[in-house]
Amino acid sequence: MVSHDRYLIESCADQLWIVADRTVTNYDGDLDEYRRLVLSSRNGEPAPRERSAASDKPQRPKSDNRGPLKKRIAEAEGEIARVTEIIAKIDTALALLDIFTRDPKQAAQLSKARANAAGALARAEQQWLEASTQFDEAAG
């Protein structure tokens, strides 16, 4: 299963695999540990090994600034749905048996549009992941 839905992964998966740098490796930690590892590597900081007992308690921010993050998450989800629908339509057109022989120019245009849409989908998923991570951090 491949998903960006953290709750789905936590409820279904019993193993995590890292796909990076053209390799696939089994990850022994949980999603929280992996998230900390990724965030610390982005910031150039070493990954935290253990949390202290004081940090185990959820901490609520003094002011709830999650509204803009909810909006960003919703916008990213909308974009993901929109682009996914476009990709499905392009795939349907490309699945026609004679599209490449009947109209190679159109087939090439559809293939290029599919590649562009796949890039847009990847960007929207990345925006969703970043906003969801920030939302989770703000929620404590």
Topology:
Layout: H1 6-12, E1 16-20, E2 23-27, H2 31-43, H3 67-94, H4 99-102, H5 104-139
Helix pairs in contact: 3-5
Describe this protein with a few key phrases.
two-stranded antiparallel sheet, 140 residues, 2 strands, 2 domains, extended, mainly alpha
Strand content: 5-15%
Largest sheet: 2 strands, antiparallel
Number of domains: 2
Task: List SSEs in N-to-C order.
Answer: HEEHHHH
Pick out the low-confidence regions: 47-57
State the end-to-end CA separation: 27 Å
Side-by-side strand order of the widest sheet: 1-2
- Overall geometry comes to extended
Compute the number of helices: 5
What is the rounded Rg? 20 Å
Total strands: the figure is 2
Mean pLDDT: 81
In helices, the fraction of residues equals 55-70%
Coarse structural class: mainly alpha
What's a quick, concise take on this entry?
The protein is 63% helix and 7% strand. The protein has 140 residues and is mainly alpha-helical. Helix 3 (67-94) packs antiparallel against helix 5.
How would you describe what is shown here?
The chain is 63% helix and 7% strand. It is mainly alpha-helical and 140 residues long. The protein folds into two domains: 1-57, no CATH class; 62-140. It has a two-stranded antiparallel sheet. It is extended. The chain starts with 5 loop residues before the first helix and ends with a helix. The model is unreliable at 47-57 (pLDDT under 50).
